[in-house]
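dumping these here so i dont lose them again. two proteins, back to back, each one seq then structure tokens. dont judge the mess
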Amino acid sequence: MASKWNQSRCAVACKFCLKVQDTLPVHLKRTCRRFATAEEIDSLVKEGRERMRTILRKLSVVKFEDLQFNTADPREFFTRFLEERGCYIQGKPLYFGTSTMLTTENEIERTTDNDEEVDEDIRGALKRKRKDGEDEERDREREHSKKEQREREQQERERREREEENEQENRPRYRILACSSSNILDDVDLRRRMEESGLYKKHPVESRIFDDFRRFLTENLQVPNCKQEVSNVSRFMYFMDPKEPSLNFVRNIEKRNQFIAKLFSVGNTHSTVFSYLKSLKKFMRYQIFSTDLVYNNPKLYQDCERFHRATGEYKKDLKKSISRNIARKM
């Protein structure tokens, strides 16, 4: 249902572009009078509203005898007839004369000088519009260049991370695990603990947010089997919000820490926790560098960047902690 404000709002014609605008002040500020002062905008709006009232008074009821014309060209008569009653004529040739056109109660006649002034205003508006278009194109090029730079930096970070991970994986098995083999739970008992703690619960992986991520992994990164990575992200997002999968979890880093602590508490190894963190970071990189999130929701994009950096720092700290524990056991 339309609001009372919408119902009572009166459309007003813009004398520069000769188009009827639902919100003339906004239109003038954004398009035809971008560099005008607030006082100038108010004056133009008052003028436009007075003109619409003039049209209402002079065209709501017209005498039949006033429609009798005695000029050779009917269009010339009706052009003058409408302009005298406050109407604009769009696309009017220059050779047509301009009749009196009431805009306020005190304005009796619109002279040729007025026409030239309006024409000059229109030309100025068109020039500004072209300039604005050029500025927008340059802004898009700069934004595209920045995005490419971010992607190159991210690729370099990923390369360094892969080297670090390969270095960890090439160490002897006993040096990767931070706990002794006697304390490692067997797979059956671990699955039971995970089930009891609710860590196996996850959102449907057919949801769009996971389907897009899966398609990115298989088509763009050429990952043949990404089921585990998608499941890891789905379980994490269920823990963060059981109702629905969304990116709102990036604003709750403390709960992310609770999820990791819970993984450790049921007996998961560091390599398993690293697997969750790796999947989560890959999901965040996808959202930051391979979607239009930066344009669609800049605030959420910034929150995703902060969450991604925080998770990366946590992963580094965890690696250092594991290395220190290994060094003490040697």
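---- next one ----
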Amino acid sequence: MSNEIEVFRITPKVGKCYMHAEATRTMIDNNGDTVYYTTNTPTYVGRLVRTERSGFGDSSTVINYFDNNGRETPVEYSYEGNTCFIEVNCRSRSRSRSHSRSRGRSSSLGRSTSNARLARSRSRSSSRGRGSNRRSRSRSGRS
């Protein structure tokens, strides 16, 4: 068939970059393997950040979350099992664009994300710490 490209039902790996397309046709090859094709144009979704799974059986849901140059792109797996990916080289913002504005701007975006992660991890660890301190104080008060 013309205008078809082969796509793959693979499990994306965290940290790698992908294009996504839903398969429009399947075929069994001579080895008994299923081959997937699409007439849709694959969409670059970015670097896989995380996968969330919920539910069981027919009610289950799988969503992959990709980072496409700072924009989160979710891809929910189809019920029919036609969700396919193509592993590609990661795309990044063009260097000329980031250099022409301000070099510090692109790095400050990374810092703000890192700072947010650091703040969340601190709040988690401090809430754990407070809980353990309360317990130890109440125990010491009883004895």
